[in-house]
Write a structure and sequence with these properties.
Helix content: 25-40%
Strand content: 15-25%
Distance between the termini: 57 Å
Largest sheet: 5 strands, mixed
Structural class: alpha+beta
Shape: globular
C-alpha cells in the first residue's frame, strides 16, 4: 500500500469510527457489533503503525491514554468560567425573575431549565474543528490542562461534526461518572481489596486529576455539554435553545431533558417535573439550572464579581423517607470509638435502598429519644450518607424499647470507658483494648488511606485479611510483608499484591505530617498533624515535647497535647515508631522549613469553611501554604481570614462575632496574585 492509499483509507476508517463512536456514546443507538467495531479500529491501528505520520491528535486511536505526566500545566480560559448563585426557595426563584425583569424593563423574558449535574466543570477548546485543549474550571480564569485525560472520554468529539464549525470555540459542561458504571467500578474495587469510592462526583474529580491517562480511560467517564465561552467564526446561537441544538449538531452530548418557560410559575413547575424524573438519568443531579434564554439579554443583564445575573441554580432539599428502626448495633473504629448504627427496614431513598443509617453517638440517641421499634425519618446528608433526622413520635405504639449503650466492646469483650471530649465534640465511649481486632483493622486501613500514607489497594477488604491472617498487627508490620504472603490471601492476585507492596515502598517518602496523621492518634486529624509539624522539625522532636509545649501549638491545645503524650507513653507505640524508623520512613517535616518561608501570606492564618465554587479545600490549603500562610481548623482571635464558600456553618458566625475578615474565593484568588 502506498502512502497516498494509506492516507485515503485512514481518513475513511477514522470517519467511520467517529460516526460509530457518536452513535454509541452520544445517541445510545449503536448500528454495529463490538466485533465489527474492533475490526475497524485494529485496521486503523495497523495503518498508523505502518505509517506513523497518520496518527494525528484527532485520530480515534489517541483516546487510549499516553505516557504519564509529571504535573498538570496551567491553561487559561479565553472567556472566564463563572459559577451560579444557589437557592433552595421557590420564593427566591420568583424574586430572581423579578430582579432580572427590573434589569431589562419592557422586555419579554423567557427561560430554559436544565438538570444541575453533580459533576466536574470543564472547558473544551476547539480550533478549526479539532479538539486542542481541555481544562478544569480552576479559579474561573485559569485551570489545569487535562487534555490527555479528557481525550479518553468517548462522548467528547476529537473533531467536530459537519463543515460549518467555528474557527475557535470553547464548550463548557460537566464530566460525570455514569451511575451504573460507578456501581460496577466500586464492586470491582472491593473485589480487588481496594477501598470503594465515596460518591460519583468525587470519583470523577479524582479520576481527572490522575497523571496517567491510561488509568482515566479505565474509569469510563462521560460528559454533558450545555454552554460556551469564546465563539469565533460563523453565526453563534442567539438563544440557549439554539445553542443546545447547535451543540448536538456539532457532535456533543447535551442534557437528557430541558424545559422552555415564560414565567416564574412555569419555572417552578419545570423544577418540580425535573425532580420527579431525575433519578432516571445516568448521572447524579442535585438541582435545576435556570438560564435566561436570550444570549443578547444575558449580555445586558451582566454579571457580578463571581456569578451571572441571568442564571440561578435551584438545589433540591435532601430526599427524606420514613422507615422503622429495627435495632441499634455498635461499630468499633480504629481509635476504639463506639458508633451506634440504626438498622432499618429497607427503604428507597434518593435512588438507592437504605438499610442502615448513622446515629453518631450516645448523645445523639438521647437528643432524638430514638428507641428500637420507632418510626424514624431519614435523609442522605449531602445526598451521600444516610442519617436519622428525627423520630416520628406520633407513630409510637408503646412497644418501643430504650437502647442502652454496652459496657463491653462488641468486638473483643473488653471494658469500655467514656473519654474526655475535645472542644466542640461529644464525649465518646471507647474500647480500651488496643489489640481489639476492629481497632487494628481500622488503624491499618487509616494508615493506607489517601489522606495519610496513600497506599494503593490498602482498603477495608485487604486490611481485614491482613489482620485476620495474623500477618499484620501494627502499621510497621506492613513494611515486612512479602509478595508471597500478600498474594497468598484470598482473592488477591499477584499483580494486585505487587501494586500494594509498591505503594508500601512509595509511602516511605511521605512527609512527616502524613505519618503523624496516619498513626491514628486520638483527636489528631490531618489539620492538627500539619499544625504540629509546622512547629517541630521532625517526629522525634514532636514526641520529645512536653504537654505544655504541644499545647502552645495553634490548633493543638491541652486535650490533643495530652492525647499525643499519652499515645507515645505506651511502650508498644514507641516500639512501632522505632520499627518505622528502621524500615526507612521519612521523619522530617517539610512544613517546618516552609513555615519560615517569606510570602504574601507570611504570618497569616486562614480558616476554610463551606464549599468553594472551584477550589477543593486541599487546593486552597496548598495555595495558602505555598505563600507562607497557614490553615487553622478553628476560628479564634488569632485568625486573619475566613475563606467562606457555600453552606458555610458556625465558623462563619464565629468569625463575624470576633470581627475576623471574611473573604470569598474571588477575593482569595486576587490575593494569591
Amino acid at each position: 500500500m502506498t502512502h497516498a492509499q494509506a492516507q485515503a483509507r485512514h481518513a475513511e476508517l477514522a470517519g467511520e469510527i467517529r460516526q460509530h463512536d457518536h452513535l454509541y456514546y452520544v445517541e445510545a443507538r449503536p448500528v454495529i457489533t463490538d466485533r465489527g467495531y474492533d475490526l475497524l479500529y485494529h485496521e486503523l491501528l495497523e495503518l498508523e503503525q505502518q505509517f506513523p505520520d497518520l496518527a494525528g491528535a484527532d485520530s480515534p486511536t489517541q483516546r487510549v491514554g499516553g505516557r504519564p505526566l509529571s504535573e498538570f500545566k496551567p491553561s487559561q480560559h479565553l472567556v472566564p468560567m463563572m459559577s451560579l448563585d444557589n437557592t433552595y426557595s421557590p420564593e427566591e426563584v420568583r424574586e430572581f425573575v423579578a430582579r432580572v425583569q427590573r434589569l431589562l424593563p419592557d422586555q419579554t423574558l423567557d427561560w430554559v431549565v436544565e438538570p444541575k449535574i453533580d459533576g466536574v466543570a470543564i472547558n473544551l477548546r476547539y480550533e478549526n474543528g479539532a479538539f486542542t485543549v481541555g481544562a478544569t474550571r480552576g479559579d474561573g480564569t485559569t485551570g489545569d490542562d487535562i487534555t490527555a485525560n479528557l481525550k479518553t472520554i468517548r462522548s467528547i468529539p476529537l473533531r467536530l461534526r459537519g463543515t460549518d464549525v467555528p474557527k475557535v470555540m470553547e464548550v463548557r459542561g460537566e464530566v460525570y461518572f455514569n451511575k451504573a458504571i460507578f456501581a460496577r467500578v466500586n464492586a470491582e474495587r472491593v473485589a480487588a481489596g481496594e477501598e470503594p469510592f465515596a460518591n460519583p462526583r468525587n470519583a470523577a474529580a479524582g479520576s481527572l486529576k490522575q497523571l496517567d491517562s491510561t488509568l482515566v480511560a479505565k474509569r469510563r467517564l462521560d460528559i454533558v455539554l450545555y454552554g460556551t465561552g469564546r465563539w469565533d467564526g460563523g453565526q453563534p446561537p442567539a438563544t440557549q435553545l439554539e445553542l443546545l441544538d447547535r451543540l448536538k449538531t456539532l457532535g456533543f452530548k447535551g442534557p437528557d431533558k430541558h424545559w422552555f418557560c415564560r414565567t416564574a410559575e412555569e419555572l417552578l413547575q419545570a423544577i418540580e417535573e425535573l425532580d420527579a424524573i431525575r433519578d432516571q438519568f445516568s448521572y447524579e443531579t442535585d438541582g435545576a439550572v435556570i438560564k435566561l434564554n436570550s444570549i443578547a439579554q444575558r449580555a445586558k443583564a451582566g454579571v457580578t464579581s463571581k456569578a451571572p445575573r441571568w442564571g440561578m441554580a435551584y438545589k433540591y432539599a435532601p430526599e427524606q423517607a420514613e422507615t422503622k428502626l429495627k435495632s441499634i448495633t455498635i461499630q468499633v473504629g480504629r481509635t476504639g470509638k463506639l458508633t451506634p448504627v440504626a438498622e432499618l427496614e429497607p427503604v428507597l431513598l434518593a435512588g438507592t435502598t437504605v438499610k442502615r443509617a448513622t446515629l453518631h453517638n450516645e448523645d445523639q440517641i438521647r437528643r432524638l429519644d430514638a428507641r428500637v421499634g420507632d418510626v424514624v425519618l431519614i435523609q442522605k446528608a449531602g445526598e451521600i450518607i444516610p442519617e436519622v433526622v428525627r423520630v416520628v413520635t406520633a407513630r409510637r405504639t408503646g412497644q418501643e424499647q430504650t437502647f442502652h449503650f454496652p459496657k463491653t466492646c462488641p468486638e473483643c469483650g473488653s471494658q469500655v470507658t467514656k473519654g474526655k471530649a475535645a472542644e466542640g465534640e461529644a464525649a465518646e465511649w471507647r474500647c480500651a483494648n488496643a489489640d481489639c481486632p476492629a481497632q487494628v483493622r481500622g488503624r491499618i486501613e487509616h494508615w493506607c488511606g489517601r489522606g495519610a500514607m496513600d497506599i494503593e489497594g490498602g482498603g477495608e477488604v485487604l486490611a481485614a485479611q491482613l489482620v485476620t491472617s495474623g500477618l499484620v498487627r501494627d502499621v510497621a508490620d506492613l513494611y515486612r510483608l512479602t509478595l508471597a504472603e500478600v498474594s497468598g490471601l484470598e482473592r488477591i492476585g499477584t499483580k494486585s499484591a505487587q501494586n500494594f507492596l509498591d505503594g508500601v515502598q512509595a509511602s516511605k517518602t511521605r512527609d512527616a505530617w502524613r505519618l503523624l496523621f496516619g498513626l491514628g492518634i486520638l483527636h489528631v486529624g490531618a489539620g492538627v498533624a500539619k499544625a504540629a509539624m509546622r512547629s517541630f522539625a521532625n517526629i522525634d522532636d514532636l514526641f520529645a515535647a512536653s504537654v505544655d509545649q504541644l499545647a502552645e501549638v495553634e490548633d493543638v491545645g491541652t486535650v490533643i497535647a495530652e492525647s499525643i503524650t499519652q499515645w507515645h507513653g505506651d511502650e508498644r507505640n514507641r516500639k512501632s515508631i522505632e520499627h518505622l524508623r528502621q524500615a526507612g520512613l521519612n521523619f522530617a517535616s517539610s512544613l517546618y522549613a516552609a513555615s519560615a518561608a517569606v510570602g504574601p501570606f507570611s504570618g497569616k492564618t486562614f480558616v476554610l469553611t463551606g464549599t468553594l465554587p472551584s477550589l477543593t479545600r486541599e487546593e486552597a490549603t496548598a495555595r495558602i501554604e505555598a505563600r507562607g500562610g497557614k490553615v487553622s481548623g478553628s476560628v479564634s482571635k488569632k485568625s486573619d481570614y475566613v475563606l467562606a464558600g457555600e453552606e458555610a456553618g458556625s465558623k462563619l458566625d464565629k468569625a463575624r462575632k470576633l470581627g475576623v475578615k471574611i473573604i470569598d474565593e474571588a477575593e482569595f484568588t486576587r490575593m494569591c496574585g
